[in-house]
């Protein structure tokens, strides 16, 4: 079969014509030369970008629904004769699953082919999405949601692996900005659009629609995606996958349930201890096995460990602020739900605009500058929002929210590109999954800890307590900025195409 590796050797410097457009030509022709022809060729999406759209569409379809019901738990609880507390697991469970099983899927794709893993994961996610629509009680809904998210997690590392096989290192920032928007933007859009969608069509219909979308994605992927190279004569690191999953699950569960169960309670302390023990076990296992899930040299590779760490720290502030600010506007300022909805959309809107534009900026100035600048915008956003009080103008709030979108739009693609350009091609799927895991860890810990800070400082005033939480987000984003300062930009040079 004609593989991605074959396609990468088929470049030429011939004049670009409609008939010649294949998988790689757009990488040779400068983007400015493409613009005059773009409108003339309505079918001008070449296969390279068409395949990118296919894999990102599947990733969006599986990650969007993770948060789509976050603001509608009351209505769903009533429908299923359950409680909001119980149904919180329909949110927590999928978030845990999506982040935890990603590294295993990344390795599976590197071993057995990312097309096979992507198609299978998307298909299974669609099956359980359909079953979610038929859930008869809270337990069945939670179980189907977790199984759907677990399977859908295969789309994240597979999408990154395809990006890094379709595009050369100096070309990856722009497509990775689209990957970053999908992974970070889809859950955010799920929160923003969840309430209107549930009110308009009902929560069950959301999953009824998701199922055929996954099926369509499977058909398109099966027809359009080429096979990726597979590693031969190696074994899957089962013990490493289990210990890493146990460490991440224990940590996320402890952080998520700490406030409800009590931070000093035996279950929470036990979960933190279990997380540390499992992480130590994971490192020991990875040092002994011949084919580790995560090469230990990554911990000594500056452009792997630092970008992944900065991603987690920045997402701590980004997602924590996303959950805190609507509550601040509601309980602290007394704004209506519609008013709040129009304000908070400023963040995903700016992210969707800046991420593609930021990729061009990054290609000119380097990933380090973009990562530092992006983290600085997030810090400024948190500080502005921390000072929102009664009488603050809508413009002030919208600018504060927009700065977060601008910041992540600059930082996320740059950090993702650094990681992708610093690992072996055989481990691209695992690298993407590790970054996905750190994003989920940062988001989960940020949202939980910032809410806890607010609740523990309520005595100082409602708006003030939210301000303290947002200052904590600013501190973590500042730490992410400091970490980004020490990365090294990829050397962007011309590629010789003989």
Essential attributes:
498 residues; mainly alpha; Growth Hormone, Chain: A; 22 helices; globular; disordered C terminus
Report on this structure:
- By secondary structure, this protein is mostly helical.
- The chain folds into 3 domains: 41-231, MFS general substrate transporter like domains (Growth Hormone, Chain: A, Up-down Bundle); 238-288; 301-492, Growth Hormone, Chain: A (Up-down Bundle).
- It is built from 22 helices and no strands.
- The chain has helices at residues 4-8, 25-28, 31-38, 47-63, 73-79, 84-87, 89-100, 102-112, 114-133, 138-152, 155-166, 173-201, 203-224, 238-261, 266-288, 302-332, 337-344, 346-365, 367-386, 394-420, 428-456, 462-484.
- The chain is globular and about 60 Å long.
- The two termini are 24 Å apart.
- The model is unreliable at 5-45 and 493-498 (pLDDT under 50).
CATH level 1 class label of the largest domain = Mainly Alpha
The count of β-strands is 0
Q: Rounded to an integer, what's the Rg over CA atoms?
A: 22 Å
**By helix and strand content, what is the structural category?**
mainly alpha
Low-confidence runs: 5-45, 493-498
Largest sheet: none
- The CATH superfamily name of the largest domain is MFS general substrate transporter like domains
Strand content: under 5%
Distance between the termini: 24 Å
Oligomer: single chain
């Amino acid at each position: 079969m004609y593989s991605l590796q074959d396609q990468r050797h088929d470049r030429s410097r011939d004049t670009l014509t409609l008939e010649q457009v294949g998988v790689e030509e757009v990488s040779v022709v400068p983007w400015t030369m493409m613009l005059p022809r773009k409108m003339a060729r309505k079918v001008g999406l070449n296969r390279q970008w068409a395949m990118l759209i296919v894999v990102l569409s599947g990733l969006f379809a599986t990650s969007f629904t993770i948060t789509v019901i976050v603001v509608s738990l009351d209505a769903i609880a009533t429908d299923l004769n359950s409680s909001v507390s119980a149904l919180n697991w329909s949110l927590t469970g999928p978030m845990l699953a999506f982040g935890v099983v990603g590294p295993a899927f990344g390795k599976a794709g590197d071993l057995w082919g990312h097309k096979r893993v992507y198609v299978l994961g998307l298909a299974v996610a669609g099956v359980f999405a359909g079953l979610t629509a038929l859930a008869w009680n809270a337990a069945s809904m939670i179980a189907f949601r977790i199984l759907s998210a677990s399977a859908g997690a295969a789309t994240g590392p597979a999408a990154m692996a395809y990006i890094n096989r379709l595009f050369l290192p100096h070309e990856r920032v722009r497509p990775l900005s689209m990957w970053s928007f999908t992974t970070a933007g889809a859950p955010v859009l799920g929160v923003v659009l969840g309430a209107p969608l549930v009110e308009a069509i009902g929560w069950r219909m959301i999953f009824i629609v998701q199922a055929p979308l996954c099926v369509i994605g499977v058909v398109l992927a099966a027809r359009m995606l080429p096979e990726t190279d597979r590693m031969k004569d190696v074994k899957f690191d089962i013990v490493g996958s289990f210990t890493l999953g146990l460490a991440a699950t224990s940590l996320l569960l402890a952080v998520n349930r700490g406030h409800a169960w009590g931070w000093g309670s035996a279950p929470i302390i036990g979960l933190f201890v279990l997380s540390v023990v499992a992480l130590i076990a994971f490192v020991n296992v990875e040092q002994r096995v011949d084919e580790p899930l995560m090469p230990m040299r990554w911990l000594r590779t500056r452009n792997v460990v630092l970008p992944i760490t900065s991603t987690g720290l920045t997402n701590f502030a980004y997602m924590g602020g996303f959950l805190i600010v609507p509550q601040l506007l509601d309980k602290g300022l007394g704004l209506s739900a519609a008013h709040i909805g129009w304000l908070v959309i400023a963040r995903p809107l700016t992210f969707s605009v800046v991420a593609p534009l930021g990729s061009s900026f990054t290609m000119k100035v380097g990933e380090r500058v973009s990562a530092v600048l992006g983290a600085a915008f997030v810090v400024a956003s948190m500080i502005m929002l921390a000072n929102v009080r009664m009488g603050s103008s809508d413009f002030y709030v919208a600018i504060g929210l927009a700065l977060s979108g601008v910041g992540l739009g600059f930082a996320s693609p740059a950090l993702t590109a650094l990681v992708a350009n610093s690992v072996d091609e055989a481990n691209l799927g695992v690298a993407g999954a590790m970054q996905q895991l750190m994003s989920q860890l940062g988001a989960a810990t940020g949202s939980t800890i910032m809410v806890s800070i607010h609740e523990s400082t309520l005595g100082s005033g409602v708006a003030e307590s939210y301000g303290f939480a947002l200052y904590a987000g600013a501190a973590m984003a500042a730490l992410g900025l400091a970490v980004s300062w020490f990365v090294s930009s990829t050397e962007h040079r011309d590629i010789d195409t003989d």
